[in-house]
Q: What sequence folds into this?
């Protein structure tokens, strides 16, 4: 393993002594100790549970080696000087590294550095203060299983021995500690009254909201993590499957238009709302509870640390009012309504009939949002309203513009893995109100009308950007964001593609807020249980600062941009910015299929149609289609369905940083057409696994509490010949933009520009870059299998690569 820790807060001896006392490693019994060996032995004894006998604890210490000659207990009982080597021999074993298997005795410092674990700056013969400082740092050091030593102790019951003896919240090294009893959590349900009447029944919509909070919050207010999840109350998978659209349809010529943005701009309509419900009574006691929520392990982690966690599925979900709308203002309002209630500015009731008001009296008014995908998307939506109380968003794989999720440059485009899905399919899947029979049948006709309006608005016929999509473009209101933003995204995410995070990152750059960005090598995943990076600790540092106002220097300690390397396993690099290349390299395609510095003339041609058998095969096997698209082999059905241009092998490593831009001059044999481009890394190499591997260890989120699986990207066992870097697609009639449609004639050449998905890609020396130009993308675009031929004019086609030197 290789460790990367960014969340170790600054400390000095004064802080060390105070905080070791706060967590009971220093106390009255240690004040009279004047020998470093005795102090370290005391620390070790305290590391094992009090209820274990002194003999058992001594036995555990004796089970560790301090040197080749002595076990740790014998070594410490001599009260001889503690060498730095002796300390770190013991430290590595406390961090679960095995002698002989993971490191060699008497060479621990080298191993610590190899593992990228922090080593205390102390004397070689450690004094009392050195021992305290080294122990303090060790408690904050990640172990072999991806958690800090102090969290490892907590999971074994260190704090649980006497929870009432610790301060609450307990802050250690700038982070909240798990000193709350997760077996005694309060679970309750309320109904928040939103400022909307989405189902037009003459009443403001009530939104079911589930709360899990520490018992201590009855007396002391706590911060809140809110996850807005449309999936939280269940899904209608069968409805989604039935509504999924057929993608084996023909591309068609579109009627030209001369639209400007004002022609398709969405303006929110201010409708007269019903009056709020009269308050008939007030209470602090909820009437409804919950047994088990669809939890997120990062939220579970913070429950043990004294944060309340709130879930709400929003309009059109089980036991809430309204209809699903997939991403528009109504969904945003249903998220901000909960935030406003948590901040004391909105009403909630104990049930949907009695008008008995209940306040979030236990909330300190500081709210963070968490979650991935749709859950992250609603964070972006809520943040763009500037709603009070929302202090920060931890938005993972979030959509910033729904058009860029379901469309691209005038084309209907599927999110990876979901061919045929669209906004109406997602609405049907998340309409869990259907599971409440009386409400569903009462609203059945109105819901069908609502669903039809989504189908009409999304416009799968043209794929153009229109008012429907403009209403779902959060970038328009990014200037209103007041919350600090922590964005996480996979550079290989083919579901919510990287363009979504790149756009919101660029939109918030000018804002006077704190913002962080993590780009990992995954697809559509969470990274809070990775072995190589202290993501959870960083979020702890961040939220302890943002929601508990602890001055822990989180803004400065956490790098602005963290990016996982795609070549070296377990390697993360910190940068000041993303999309900050040193140079833009322009390359031109040649007649002999090379990418060079020189212009070449001539044309390349490819077709789109396949035999029925090959077409049907690729519709069922995207991997085979992709391999055949990228690689040359005998009897390849796609040999004439794409053109490939390659660079010469790279003389040295370099990085592509940002958006690759393709200028094309092309024609189609019909008066319509689409072009797809893929940038590929060619070279036989051991690459990272496509998905993180389960390492077979469970991470505890607290004591006798929930768990997560330790994961990490590893180097594959076999070499692979290529890796896709980025791709892009365009309708040839949307050469200007996604809402302006140009006319097109068969066999006429047209200029167009296409940006591939933004990336940060390390190209090793000896590898070649390949540009593949084709039409139908079996995994993403519609698939008409039409008799179309395309020609590319080489002299007016090029690729621009944003290059950052290694």
A:
């Amino acid at each position: 393993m290789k460790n990367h820790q960014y969340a170790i807060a600054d400390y000095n001896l004064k802080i060390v002594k105070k905080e070791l006392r706060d967590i009971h490693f220093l106390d009255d019994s240690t004040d009279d100790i004047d020998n470093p060996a005795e102090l370290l032995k005391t620390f070790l004894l305290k590391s094992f549970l009090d209820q274990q006998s002194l003999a058992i604890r001594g036995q555990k210490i004796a089970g560790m080696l301090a040197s080749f000659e002595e076990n740790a207990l014998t070594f410490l009982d001599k009260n001889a000087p503690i060498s730095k080597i002796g300390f770190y021999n013991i430290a590595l074993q406390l961090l679960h590294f095995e002698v002989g298997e993971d490191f060699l005795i008497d060479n621990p410092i080298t191993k610590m550095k190899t593992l990228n674990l922090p080593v205390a700056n102390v004397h070689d013969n450690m004094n009392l203060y050195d021992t305290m400082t080294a122990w303090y740092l060790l408690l904050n050091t990640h172990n072999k299983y991806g958690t800090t030593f102090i969290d490892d102790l907590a999971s074994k019951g260190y704090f649980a021995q006497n929870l009432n003896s610790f301060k609450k919240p307990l802050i250690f090294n700038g982070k909240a500690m798990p000193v709350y009893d997760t077996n005694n959590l309060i679970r309750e349900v309320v109904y928040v009254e939103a400022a909307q009447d989405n189902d037009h029944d003459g009443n403001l919509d009530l939104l079911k909201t589930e709360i899990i909070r520490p018992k201590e919050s009855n007396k002391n207010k706590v911060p809140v993590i809110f996850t807005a999840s449309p999936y939280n109350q269940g899904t209608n998978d069968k409805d989604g499957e039935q509504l999924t659209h057929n993608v084996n349809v023909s591309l068609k010529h579109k009627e030209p238009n001369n639209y400007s943005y004002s022609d398709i701009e969405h303006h929110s309509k201010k409708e007269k709302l019903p009056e709020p419900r009269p308050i008939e009574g007030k209470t602090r006691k909820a009437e409804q509870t919950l047994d088990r929520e669809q939890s997120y392990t990062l939220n579970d982690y913070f429950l043990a640390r004294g944060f309340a966690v709130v879930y709400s599925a929003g309009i059109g979900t089980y036991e809430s009012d309204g209809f699903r709308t997939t991403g528009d203002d109504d969904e945003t309002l249903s998220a901000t309504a909960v935030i406003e209630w948590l901040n004391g500015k909105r009403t909630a009731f104990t049930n949907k009939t009695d008008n008995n008001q209940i306040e979030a009296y236990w909330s300190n008014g500081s709210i963070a949002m968490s979650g991935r995908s749709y859950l992250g998307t609603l964070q972006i939506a809520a943040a763009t309203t500037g709603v009070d109380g929302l202090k920060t968003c931890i938005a993972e794989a979030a959509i910033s513009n729904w058009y860029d999720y379901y469309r691209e440059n005038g084309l209907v485009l599927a999110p990876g893995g979901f061919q045929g899905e669209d906004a109406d399919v997602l609405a049907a899947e998340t309409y869990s109100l259907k599971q409440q029979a009386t409400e569903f049948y009462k609203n059945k006709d109105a819901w069908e009308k609502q669903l039809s309006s989504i189908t009409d608005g999304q416009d799968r016929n043209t794929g153009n950007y229109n008012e429907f999509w403009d209403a779902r473009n959060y970038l328009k209101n990014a200037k209103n964001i007041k919350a600090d933003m922590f964005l996480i995204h996979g550079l290989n995410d083919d579901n919510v593609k990287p363009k979504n995070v790149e756009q919101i990152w660029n939109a918030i750059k000018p804002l006077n807020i704190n913002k962080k960005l993590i780009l990992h090598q995954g697809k559509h995943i969470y990274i809070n249980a990775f072995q190589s990076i202290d993501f959870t600790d960083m979020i702890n540092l961040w939220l302890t600062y943002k929601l508990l106002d602890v001055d822990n220097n989180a803004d400065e300690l956490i790098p602005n941009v963290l990016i996982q390397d795609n070549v070296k396993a377990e390697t993360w690099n910190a940068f000041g910015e993303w999309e900050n290349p040193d140079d833009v390299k322009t390359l031109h395609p040649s007649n002999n299929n090379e990418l060079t510095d020189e212009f070449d003339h001539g044309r390349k041609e490819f077709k789109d149609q396949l035999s029925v058998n090959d077409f049907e095969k690729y519709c069922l096997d995207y991997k085979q289609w992709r391999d055949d698209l990228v690689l040359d082999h005998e009897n390849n059905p796609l040999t004439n369905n794409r053109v490939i241009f390659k660079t010469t092998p790279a003389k040295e490593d370099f990085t592509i940083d940002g958006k690759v831009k393709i200028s094309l001059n092309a024609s189609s044999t019909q008066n319509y057409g689409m072009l797809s481009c893929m940038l590929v890394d060619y070279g036989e190499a051991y690459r990272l696994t496509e998905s993180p591997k389960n390492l077979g260890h469970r991470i505890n989120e607290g004591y006798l509490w929930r768990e997560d699986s330790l994961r990490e990207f590893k180097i594959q066992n076999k070499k692979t010949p290529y890796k896709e870097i980025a791709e892009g697609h365009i309708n040839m009639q949307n050469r200007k933009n996604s809402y302006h449609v140009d006319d097109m004639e068969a066999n006429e050449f047209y200029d167009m520009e296409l940006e591939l998905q933004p990336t940060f890609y390390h190209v090793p020396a000896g590898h070649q870059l390949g540009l593949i130009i084709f039409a139908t993308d079996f995994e993403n675009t519609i698939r008409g299998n039409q008799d179309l031929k395309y020609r590319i004019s080489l002299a007016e086609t090029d690729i621009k690569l944003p290059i950052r030197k290694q």
Notes: The two ends are 23 Å apart (CA to CA). The mean pLDDT is 96.
